[in-house]
Structure formats: structure tokens, C-alpha cells
Specification:
Helices cover 32% and strands 9% of the residues. The protein has 191 residues and is α+β, with helices and mostly antiparallel strands. A three-stranded antiparallel sheet has the order 1-2-3, with no helix packed on it. The relative contact order is 0.09.
Length: 191
């Protein structure tokens, strides 16, 4: 099948049936009865769904409301009496973000000795050292286009926005409100 073309593992040996994929979801069912269901990060798509292990990809971009109102309640419903697990997979974003707050709490939990939590940070340097097949031309192009995004994507650096001309954290907190604009001045004059 096309989903696993070029895969290292012989996936077809493990599958109960051909994977399904649509704009709404993707489903893989294994012979042992386990399954993987991929859904978009949208409250309306996630409500009512349950999972024993939740993997939140690109967590840096998750809105706080989606996480607290939808994802966390999903974890409350135990599967076969066992606590559910969550994996936060993400590149870095900004320090003021909700995702950074969540991940900092995880770091503190680990420092306090919480044993059911782990953290893995994989930088470009680690990937290169391990011989991971990565196209360095794409990495260099990312850094050439935007140094900050390169640092976030490949160096796992959560950036402060303190050096910005417009402080991004404040801008994200403000809603653009509709207002009336009254034009004044001389109509014939260029400004």
C-alpha cells in the first residue's frame, strides 16, 4: 500500500486490513486488535473520541482551550481500568505560549521525581550524530529563510519575544475589535 511505501518495517504483516484515510481522519487497525486513529486538532473533531495513548503532534501550536476542554477530559476516561497516557510531540515555539507552560510543568515533575513522566529533546546535532536520514539542504534553507524558525524547528529553542518590535505575546492576547474610522483632513492632499 502507498502509506507504507519505503517503510523500514514490513507493516503489512501487522495490519488486520488496509489503512483508511480521508480529510477527517486516518485509521490503522492491527491484527492484535490495537489501532491508531489520527484526527485533526479540532475540538469538534475530537469530542467523544477516546484513546489509551494520545499523541499530540506539533503541540507548540495547540490552543489552551482545545487542550483543557477536550484533550485533558479525554484522558479522564480510563481504558480497561488503566490510566491513559499522553505524548507531547513538538518543535519549539515561544516561551509565552501555553505549550511551553505545559512542557515546563513536565520538566518540574521530572525534577521532583515523578516516575510516570519522561522528556526527550532531539536536536539537529543529535540527529546528525546518530546518522538520522535528514536532508541538510532543507535545514539550511529554513535557517536562511528565518533564523528564528530554524532555531525552533532544529535546535529545540523556545524563543522569548522580548526583542520584537511589536511584542508578540501582547499582540496574541489582544483581539482585533471592530471600530469606525473617521477620515479627517483635506481630501485633495496626499498624506
Amino acid at each position: 500500500n502507498t502509506i507504507f511505501d519505503g517503510a523500514i518495517l514490513p507493516w503489512d504483516e501487522f495490519l488486520a486490513k488496509e489503512p483508511t484515510e480521508s480529510n477527517e481522519s486516518a485509521l490503522i487497525v492491527f491484527r492484535n486488535g490495537s489501532s491508531i486513529l489520527a484526527l485533526p486538532a479540532s475540538g469538534t473533531k475530537l469530542h467523544g473520541t477516546r484513546g489509551h495513548v494520545l499523541v499530540l503532534t506539533e503541540f507548540f501550536d495547540y490552543p489552551e482551550d482545545l487542550y483543557t476542554r477536550t484533550v485533558v477530559p479525554m484522558l479522564a476516561v480510563k481504558s480497561h481500568g488503566e490510566a491513559n497516557k499522553i505524548i507531547w510531540e513538538t518543535s519549539s515555539g515561544f516561551e509565552f505560549s501555553f505549550a511551553h507552560q505545559v512542557l515546563e510543568k513536565i520538566k518540574k515533575d521530572i525534577a521532583r521525581g515523578v516516575t510516570d513522566t519522561a522528556r526527550l529533546v532531539v536536536t539537529l546535532e543529535k540527529l546528525k550524530k546518530e546518522g538520522f536520514p535528514i536532508d541538510l539542504r532543507i535545514v539550511e534553507e529554513t535557517f536562511d529563510l528565518n533564523q528564528d524558525i530554524g532555531k525552533q524547528q532544529y535546535d529545540c529553542i523556545w524563543l522569548s519575544d522580548a526583542g520584537s518590535f511589536y511584542v508578540l505575546s501582547i499582540m496574541k492576547e489582544e483581539d482585533l475589535k471592530q471600530s469606525k474610522i473617521r477620515l479627517t483632513g483635506e481630501p485633495e492632499r496626499e498624506y
